[in-house]
Amino acid sequence: MIHPSVSKNKQLHLPRNFIRVLVLSVILLGLCVLASLAFGSRTIGWNELMIGLFQPDVQSHEASVVRQRIARTVFSFMCGAALGVSGALMQSVTRNPIADPSILGVNTGAALFVVCGISFFNIGSASQYIWFALVGAIITAIFVFGIGSMGSGGATPLKLVLAGAATSAALSSLVMAIMIPRSNVMDQFRFWQVGSVGAGNWSSISTFIPFLIVGILIALFTAPALNALALGDEAATGLGVRTGTIRLIAAFGGVLLCAVTTALAGPIGFIGLLATHVIRLLIGPDLRYIIPMSALSGAIILTISDICGRLLGSPGELEVGVVTAFIGAPILILLTMKAKMRSL
């Protein structure tokens, strides 16, 4: 699948600024943990925070709130990491600098199948959501790529984005058409539709973990070959890369991570786009480093968005999907205006 010369010719060497970016990311991640545990509908003081973290025998209200927020924070990190890696894979597979699960319509396809499962098959568990979401995401990804590949020039970045936007709009309409006549489905998922990590708990985390591990392992395994693909299909083939197989495996990894996140947290947009762009800007194009750093960056961005939603919506909260849309939409417009719409 990957010729040994790919690894030999690309010896591991740290990209520029890698150590500084890594240290900064770890510090930001630590600050996100503290802020996520402290801020919400009720602000938790430092002493109460330490009691909640390190004195499990104490059963005060503040300690209970801190422990609930621990699960939410871990779940937010996992969702952000999954979306960050998914965005990196989709941008590499499509060679589209503004590819993202939400822009290509993949998470909308996953959402549609989850809503169909609830409405017509009475599914109710997280594991059932995941399988329905995975099927929906795969079918949508194939459909968007097929539409974007039609005509001269094949699957260009512009055609993929247009196909994804049109597909996402159509599927969103189908979601609403299915939900509106069914008040029980509408009540159950009206907040899930905009994306939220507020329902994250240890059960959803344990369900998420194996899929997250598989998706990240796929991403790391395919990273050297995806680097070769960035040189062009002919050059990659000359290095012994089976381009079709690598694209299929990497696309599956990206779709898997997106589908699982959508099933458990709802369709959260723009995280993959933002996380990967920030990291590529800071450390360069090597996917062996972009993928793990996109996971860190995605976790940070999503958790900061969740904290902002809690603060802005206090005493309630704004769903994190709304916050990421407010942040991501203007950035996408700027990227589209400045980009020359060419391959990576």
From TrEMBL:
Transmembrane helix recorded as keyword: yes
Record keywords, A-Z: Cell membrane, Membrane, Transmembrane, Transmembrane helix, Transport
BP-aspect Gene Ontology terms: siderophore-iron import into cell
Domain of life of the source: Bacteria
Coiled coil: none
Main location group: membrane
Entry's localization field: Cell membrane
Gene3D superfamilies noted in UniProt: ABC transporter involved in vitamin B12 uptake, BtuC
GO molecular function, one term: transmembrane transporter activity
InterPro entries the record matches: ABC_BtuC-like, ABC_transptr_permease_BtuC
GO annotations of cellular component type: plasma membrane
Statement: the UniProt record of this protein carries the keyword Repressor: no
Regions crossing the membrane: 18-40, 70-90, 102-122, 129-148, 160-181, 202-226, 246-275, 287-312, 318-337
Bilayer topology: Multi-pass membrane protein
UniProt record similarity statement: Belongs to the binding-protein-dependent transport system permease family. FecCD subfamily.
Protein name (record): ABC-type Fe3+-siderophore transport system
Organism: Halalkalibacter wakoensis JCM 9140
